[in-house]
Specification:
Length: 334
């Protein structure tokens, strides 16, 4: 699999929280050659299994994205919106967007708004309609718009929409294609509704009842100008092995095992600590009587903006580390 081709396709597909069907369809097509069984559960999680006789290992990368949901259309045809997931109003001003039906729009802000205090309620979408009647022929209340920006390559780095978390979906797909010999019973989950509360991973983990869990996601980078060092990972530093975030303190054995595998197999890796935010690791580690859980993350900049940025070599290192853990010999209990 070519990482750039994967990213181009995955970041272009529509799939906000609660509306992941198109993303799931594409990922199922891409994953089919590399697994024994694929199913979607009631929530919409896509679960790809590579059967084995050993312990159950659940990898989870969420496939949903943030977006803007239509809440009201005024008499002039402007669409008021609410946030689906973590939206920073300043980051999305004047961003091109599109709805599931292809309707285009651009994010505007109410005249006279103090940009230092701008809120989601100050934003609207201009879809080019002359009045409310015309707008409602194009967009219905409850429709969700996503960023309509495009992936761009910058040497070994890429910038584009929804690297959170389509980049980890690409990593998981690449890792699936690389696995050659394994005893573990492998479950690769592409989860839904992470951006609105890690909801999909909760039900997927309950259904799978894994012996081990690994969450794949992005993580804020610590190498932007004038960083306050609230996080620890950097672009180009390799796979970020999660130690903790706002949703999970990873099992110490999992942290050490992932770092040891990286060292043994020459995979570039770094330890990752963030003070807030969370991943699918949060609900996975609390499943039933508890699951030893770790995380493999991609350092990224400009999170939840229309043009996030990450390093292709870090993604490849993450894929190699996923492969290494999937193939390693594990016991029922760590």
């Amino acid at each position: 699999m070519d990482m750039m081709e994967l990213l181009t396709r995955l970041t272009a597909v529509y799939g906000p929280s609660g509306g992941e069907d198109e993303a799931a369809k594409l990922i199922e097509e891409l994953a089919a050659p590399y697994c024994d069984k694929i199913k979607r559960d009631t929530m919409g999680n896509l679960i790809c299994r590579k059967k084995g006789k050993g312990p159950k290992v659940m990898f989870s990368a969420h496939m949903d994205s943030i977006g803007l949901v239509a809440t009201h259309v005024d008499e002039h045809g402007f669409v008021r919106v609410g946030a689906v997931g973590g939206i920073s109003p300043l980051k999305v001003l004047h961003t091109p967007v599109r709805f599931r039906n292809g309707q285009a729009g651009v994010v505007g802000v109410q005249a006279g708004t103090d940009l230092a205090k701008v809120k989601i309620s100050d934003l609207f979408l201009d879809i080019g309609a002359a009045d409310r009647e015309e707008a409602l022929q194009r967009v219905q209340i409850g429709d969700v718009a996503v960023f309509d920006t495009r992936l761009a390559r910058m040497g070994n780095r890429v910038s584009g929409p929804y690297l959170d978390n389509r980049a980890s979906c690409a990593v998981q797909l690449m890792a699936m294609s690389m696995i050659r010999k394994w005893d573990n019973d492998l479950y690769f989950v592409f989860s839904v509704q992470e951006e609105v509360g890690t909801r999909g991973a909760k039900t997927a983990a309950w259904g799978i009842d894994p012996d081990y869990g690994v969450a794949l996601d992005v993580t804020p980078a610590d190498d932007e100008p004038e960083s306050k060092h609230l996080v620890s990972s950097v672009l180009g530093g390799g796979a970020a092995v999660k130690v903790m975030d706002g949703s999970v303190i990873c099992h110490p054995w999992m942290v050490e095992k992932l770092m040891a595998l990286a060292g043994e197999q020459g995979i570039k890796a770094q330890r990752d600590v963030i003070r807030a935010g969370g991943t699918d690791g949060g609900p996975i580690h609390l499943t039933r009587s508890g699951v030893p859980t770790g995380g493999i993350s991609i350092p990224w900049r400009y999170g939840h903006s229309p043009m996030e940025l990450a390093d292709l070599e870090d993604m490849r290192a993450c894929a190699e580390l996923v492969r290494a853990f999937a193939e390693c010999r594990l016991e029922k209990e760590c």
